[in-house]
Amino acid sequence: MAWADNMPRIIETSHTRSQQYGLRRESAPDYSPLARNDLSLLIEQNRLLHAHAVPAMETLYQQIVNTHNMVILTDAQGVIVHSLGDDDFLEKASRVALQPGVAWSEQSRGTNAIGTAIAEGTPALVHADQHYLSANHFLTCSAAPIADHLGNVIGVLDVSGDQRSYHKHTMALVRMSALMIENQLFSAAFEDAITIRFHARPEFIGTLMEGIASFSPGGRFLAANRNGLFQLGLSTAALQSHTFSSLFGLPVSALFDHYRTASPGLLNLCMHNGVSVFGRAQLRLSNSVFQQSLTSDRTTPATAPAPMSASQAASTARRLSGLRYLRTGDQQLELVIEKVTRVLGKDIPIMIMGETGTGKELLAQAIHNDSPRAMSPFVAVNCASIPETLIESELFGYEDGAFTGARKKGAIGKILQANGGTLFLDEIGDMPFSLQARLLRVLQERMVTPLGSDKSIPVNVELICATNHNLRDRIAKGLFREDLYYRLNGLVVKLPPLRERTDLETVVKKILATESNNGRYHVSAEILQLFRQHRWPGNFRQLTNLLRTAIVMAGDEHEICLRHMPDDFLDDIELAATQLAAPDPAQMVASGANLEEMEQSVILKSLEAHGGNVSATARALGVSRNTIYRKVPNLK
Ligand SMILES: Nc1ncnc2c1ncn2[C@@H]1O[C@H](COP(=O)(O)OP(=O)(O)OP(=O)(O)O)[C@@H](O)[C@H]1O
């Protein structure tokens, strides 16, 4: 039976169109390709499509190799941009027909898979005598359009071969490959957005079947891929008035909360049409985009989710951002960023040193966010805050009934939770000595054995550690294993304390902008001067908290000045001023100072040593707090 005897509707309508274009079935087609310059221009105009399609074309070709077929990519008008494969099935004269620069629109070739897929906006299989021109009856062609995130056809993927090589699975392979290209183009278009991948069946997330939808940081709908539109049951145009919350029944802040937990699982979502789906979100937002959302998205209509509180938004912005968020002009920090950037994705453990609050965890998260593992979990464990008795099960997990009190079903430890991603061990210097050998074994063998189990599970984690101890001192005191130390310190970087940073003014501006939800506040010159002189023992944590309070105090005033500062900060400043004025006791003896003055000087020195803490100073000097206040009256 000739295929043309049983023509599907789209072939029939295409034949009618071909007639209307004035084409004659027996005419000899002109296959002359574009001139070299025009072809270069065509490739340049379709650069993005070309870049994302070529790897998928190569994979597709691997599956049909030796079947006398060619894989072809065209632009939106059906002009071939790239082709690869076996052209040995073609007559010499026809060989040029499937080369870059040749047009395969219906207007020029009549019914053919590429042209018909474009005309109909759907995949098209055109076999043998279904081609309008007799000259093309030797071909069998399966083509699928490739659409951009707005649903516009931007190209066609096609497999063409000798009609005797027809295989019923070819069309499915072409459709899947086109979908793969569309998904890649989609991901590239929405790098700085909230992107959610969803499907009613959890095992389909991460496959070609998943729906993908992107939202602005404030939750406004941006776009969805083909499967996303299908699952949501709405067109791109209809989705324009939607938000994350109107489509998935959750405010966008709940999404951020979910990913704030150390090891978030899949999201359970209920779509606007009542269908339950599982989802995984990617929250890669540059700070600038995030800032924009804080201002512009608040103007979205009633369906928009409730805006996050300023501090919630600020902490989310920091958490989700990469290394560029940390760049504020300090030279020491630039060097740190330069070094860690070099080892990204290289499986080199990173050790971050620095005083408390200098941003060690933030740096670790930023390293992870910029690494090839960004889509996988970032799991942080603070070795100092977990009781020694629990840290082993917390890290390694345990089997059912491994010990009394264990949850019935056992638990997966943090190391396995981080599998495929990054494990951040904060305060590694406080890891109990007995566990250090176990950790070392995991790192060397890349296997974890949960408590109470005899099975080892392979694990692949990128390791980042942080400490504010001098680990060499701890090794010397027998508190830290030297072998573990050498295993951990692939790249050692030190975060500068705030008092050494040269970008304090920018840092203050940045914190004010993120903490206040807008750029309204600034600090007075006097405050900035005080900030520059302050020691900042709590570093960023202290400065952030201080500015957060000052913003509340300033209210409608835009300039933050002395009267908006919390009392403890003012006390610290006063104390520092008194200390500056306090002479050295040895000099005092030489200069004939009296006992009272010398006492006062000793107390001030001790206060300085104890960070201004009066109780600790009193304890150290063996006197009561009252005595301290009595002897240094201007402390009150
Ligand atoms: N560069 C920065 N810009 C703005 N805020 C920052 C910056 N670095 C750190 N912070 C903020 O300071 C606080 C402390 O940061 P982080 O927890 O990363 O410090 P850390 O060195 O790990 O502290 P610790 O040693 O106490 O665990 C956090 O609220 C963080 O968001």
Characterization of the model:
This protein is of the alpha/beta class and 636 residues long. The chain has four domains: 3-184, Beta-Lactamase (2-Layer Sandwich); 190-305, Beta-Lactamase (2-Layer Sandwich); 323-494, Rossmann fold (3-Layer(aba) Sandwich), CATH 3.40.50; 500-635, Helicase, Ruva Protein, domain 3, CATH 1.10.8.60. Helices cover 44% and strands 16% of the residues. The chain contains 29 helices and 21 strands. The strands form six sheets. It has a five-stranded antiparallel sheet with strand order 2-1-5-4-3, with helices on both faces. It has a five-stranded antiparallel sheet with strand order 8-7-6-10-9. Helix 25 packs across helix 27 (595-609). It is elongated. Mean pLDDT is 82; it is low at 286-320 and 403-408. It binds adenosine-5'-triphosphate. The site of adenosine-5'-triphosphate (ATP) has 17 residues, from helix 16 and helix 24. This is GAF domain-containing protein. It comes from Pseudoduganella danionis. Keywords: ATP-binding, DNA-binding, Nucleotide-binding, Transcription, Transcription regulation. Residues 326-552 form the Sigma-54 factor interaction domain.
